Model the fold of this input.
Amino acid sequence: MLLLARSRLERLAAEGIPLLAVWINGSFVTGSDKPNDLDALVLIDALAWKSCWPLFGGPSGAGARIHTLECDERYEPGGTKLDHLTDFKYLMYFPPDTAGHAVTVEDLDVWHENWSRLRLPSPKQDEEGRLVEDAKGFVEVRWSS
Done:
């Protein structure tokens, strides 16, 4: 699972997509003896991305590439959604003191809030378990090419 995620990230970096970091979540970062998935939020350097646009044929080509990542390359190839071991999502990261940073902070806060929750099993099968805030964390991996 980890090697599969790493190979996907290496392919993106080789393509010229400027990766900053990856947040990793899912059963992979729990105490599970047999994790069954790895969720990844890939942070793309928004300022460096703009300088990469010529690699993709300009702004529209770069936008199309990000759309393809979000829609067609969310999971590894093959199988159904339930067969996938990795689930990749993407976020443009704008650094502090840039126009897009406020949006970046809001987006990261949403991911942090969602990935810090844990749903406890319900004693009754027909009910959802209780949602516990700040019950778990995730792993951040910094990327350098």
